[in-house]
């Protein structure tokens, strides 16, 4: 009979492995959401794209942290915070524009490369 503690650890590892296998697809979704963002991130037309990007970043923040991918979670949290600030109309958040957003999206991708090595 298998030890219940070991069974649980095996199940968690299987879930973590499955999450890691799905990361490339999820990262592509994040890239796509960023690509949909207009150049003027303060424009009214940017709101839907920002909401989508914020939701994806939020999912990464929670799910990556749950499965122990802390670098992804932390990078996604920074992206989520910026998106949320922009959605709330913070002018200082928009100062860096699309370039800041691009660097944060890239940071999530870089963190994924580090966490999955």
Polypeptide structure, described:
The protein is an all-alpha fold. It has a single domain (4-115), classed as Four Helix Bundle (Hemerythrin (Met), subunit A), CATH 1.20.120. 80% of the residues lie in helices and 0% in strands. The chain contains 5 helices and no strands. It has helices at residues 4-35, 46-66, 70-87, 91-94, 97-115. The longest helix is centred in the N-terminal third of the chain and has 32 residues, at 4-35.
N-to-C SSE string, H for helix and E for strand: HHHHH
CATH architecture call: Up-down Bundle
Query: How does the overall form come out from the CA principal axes?
Result: elongated
* Domains (count): 1
Beta-strand content bin: under 5%
Q: Quick one: biggest sheet?
A: none
CATH topology: Four Helix Bundle (Hemerythrin (Met), subunit A)
Mean pLDDT level:
90
Instruction: Return residue spans where pLDDT drops below 50 for at least 5 consecutive residues.
Output: none
First-residue to last-residue Cα separation:
33 Å
| Secondary structure category | mainly alpha
């Amino acid at each position: 009979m298998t030890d219940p503690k070991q069974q649980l650890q095996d199940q968690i590892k299987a879930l973590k492995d499955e999450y890691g296998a799905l990361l490339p697809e999820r990262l592509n979704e994040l890239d796509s959401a960023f690509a949909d963002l207009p150049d003027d991130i303060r424009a009214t037309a940017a709101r839907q794209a920002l909401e989508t990007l914020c939701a994806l970043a939020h999912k990464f923040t929670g799910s990556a942290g749950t499965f122990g991918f802390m670098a992804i979670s932390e990078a996604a949290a920074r992206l989520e915070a910026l998106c949320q600030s922009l959605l709330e109309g913070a002018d200082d958040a928009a100062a860096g524009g699309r370039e800041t957003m691009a660097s944060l999206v890239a940071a999530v991708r870089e963190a994924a490369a580090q966490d999955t090595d």
